[in-house]
Amino acid sequence: MSHFETDSIRIQSRTNEKEHSSPIFLTSSFTFDSAEEARAMFADEIQGNIYSRYANPNSADLIEKVCAAEGTEDGIATASGMAAMFGSIASLLQQGDHILASRSLFGSTHQLLTRVFPKWGITSTYGDISDYQNWGKLVQPNTKMLFIETPSNPGLEIIDLEWAGKFAQAHGLILVVDNCFATPYLQQPAKWGAHIVTHSATKYIDGQGRVLGGLILGKRELIKEVQFFTRHTGPSISPFNAWILAKSMETLAVRMDRHCENALRIAKYFEGSSQLEAVKYPFLPSHPQHDLAKKQMKAGGGIITLSLKGGVSRAQRFIDQLQMISVTANLGDSRSIITHPASTTHSKLSAEERAKVGISDGLIRLSVGLEHSDDIILDVERALERSK
What we know:
- With 388 residues, the protein is an alpha/beta fold.
- It has helices at 4-10, 35-42, 57-70, 81-90, 107-116, 161-171, 183-186, 220-233, 239-248, 252-270, 290-296, 311-321, 351-356, 373-386, and strands spanning 74-78, 98-102, 123-127, 143-149, 174-178, 196-200, 214-218, 276-280, 303-308, 326-327, 337-339, 363-367.
- β5 (174-178), α7 (183-186) and β6 form a beta-alpha-beta unit.
- The longest helix has 19 residues, at 252-270.
- The model has no long low-confidence stretch (mean pLDDT 95).
C-alpha cells in the first residue's frame, strides 16, 4: 500500500476470530504458555504482550497506523499529549543537558522547559524563527536537542523543517517536532530529518473530543530509550483510548480535508475586516511564512487566529456573544472551538513572554470544525457586531 487513506484504514492486526473491525483488548495483563516463555519475553529475547503498561494490541495497532502515516520506524502511545512531550525529552536527556527550542510553544510545553526540567538540571534556550542565522550562536557544548512545533500553538508560526533538519545534523542534535497542528496527513517532519515526532492525539487524531492520548514516533534506536522510560514511569495509554484513536485514524484524511477547506474560506472571508487587527492562517498569502507553509504542508490546517481590536475586554465580550461555537480549551474537534490564549492556555506566561510569541490580549484561536462554513461565519460575524 502506498496511499495515506488506504493505509490508515487497512492497517490492522487480526485475531483467530477473523474479525473485520479491530476488537478492544480490555486486559491489564497477558498469559504465558510456560515459565520459559515468560522469562524470554521479560529478557526481550522474544516479542509478545506482557502487561498493558508495556504494550497492548490496541496501542500496537495505533502505533503501526501512525508510523505508516508519519514515515517513522517505531513509536509509543501515551496517556496524553503532554505525557508525550514530557516523555520525548525526559527519556533522551540527562542532568546537565541543554535544549534549544523555538520560542513559540504550547503553554504547558513552555512550563516543562522553564519550571520542570530545570529542577533536574536540564536547561533550555529559546530561539526566534525570524533570526535563523544566529541560532548557531545559541548552541552550547551541552546542547543535545532541538525542540520545535510547527505550526506553533497558537501563533501559527511556521518553522522551516528542511533548515531544522540540516541544523540538527550539523550540530549533532536530536530534532524533536511537535506535529499536532498539522497532523501526519498534512506534514511529515521525519521526511525533513526529524528524529522524533510528537502528537497530542487528543486533538485531530481523535477529532471528536472524546479521549486523551499522546504519541512519540521516530527512529527505532531512540524509541527504544523512550520505551524503557515509559514502561517504568507509567504514562501508558488505556486500551480503550488506543482503540478509539486507531479507529479515528481511518477518517483523519477526510476530516482534515474539510477542516482545511472550511478554515481557508473563513480566513479569506474575515481578512480585512474593520473589526480585526489581523487574521492569520498559513495558506493565506498574507501569512509571513506562506511560501514555506506551501512547501512543507499539504494544506493550511484547521486553526485560524483572529486579533480583535479592543484587547481583553473586547475578546471576552466577543466570546460571550457566540451562540454556536464552543468555548473550551480543546481543539481539533468536529465542533468549532474558540479559545482566548492570553487568559487560558498561555496565561502562565508573562505579558512579555506572550508578546515575544505574538500572543496579544485580543488574539483569539479559532479551531474550525466540520460544521457548514456559512454557519461558522454567521456566528463569528454576529458576535463581532454584538461585542462592539
